[in-house]
Amino acid sequence: MERILAIQIKRIGDLILTAPALARLKRAYPESELTLVTLGAAGQLVPAIPAVDEHFNYRYGRPNLSLWTAVTNGR
């Protein structure tokens, strides 16, 4: 299985504009697992994006060690 990692650590509006691209990625690679990393409040919108299989929320100004460990270990 292919895995795709999308990192969108901008604002909520940027995530809304990114959602169609994520949907196209999922259509192009339907068997893939799409993981999305967002920043702050934008993460609250992720459940409304059906293309995303897994989501992590980046915490600005924090080490985010558990996030990067999970992403690099393929979880």
Description:
- The protein has 75 residues and is an alpha/beta fold.
- Helix content is 33%, strand content 24%.
- It has two helices and three strands, in the order βαββα.
- The chain has a three-stranded parallel β-sheet with strand order 1-2-3, with helices on one face.
- The longest helix is centred in the first third of the chain and has 17 residues.
- The protein is flat, with a radius of gyration of 12 Å.
Task: Give the SSE layout.
Elements: E1 3-8, H1 12-28, E2 33-39, E3 54-58, H2 65-72
Parallel strand pairs: 1-2, 2-3
Question: Summarize this, please?
Answer:
With 75 residues, this protein is of the alpha/beta class.
DSSP summary, beta strand count: 3
Mean pLDDT: 87
List the uncertain runs: none
Note the gap between the termini: 13 Å
Output the strand order for the largest sheet. 1-2-3
Helix fraction, binned, reads 25-40%
Instruction: Estimate the global geometry from the Cα principal axes.
Output: flat
Strand count, sense and barrel status of the largest sheet are:
3 strands, parallel
**Count of alpha/pi helices:** 2
Q: How much β-strand is present in the residues?
A: 15-25%
Q: From the helix content, strand content and strand pairing, which structural class follows? A: alpha/beta
Give the SSE string.
Answer: EHEEH
Radius of gyration, taken over Cα atoms and rounded to an integer in Å: 12 Å
Name the features.
single chain, 75 residues, alpha/beta, three-stranded parallel beta sheet, 3 strands, 33% helix
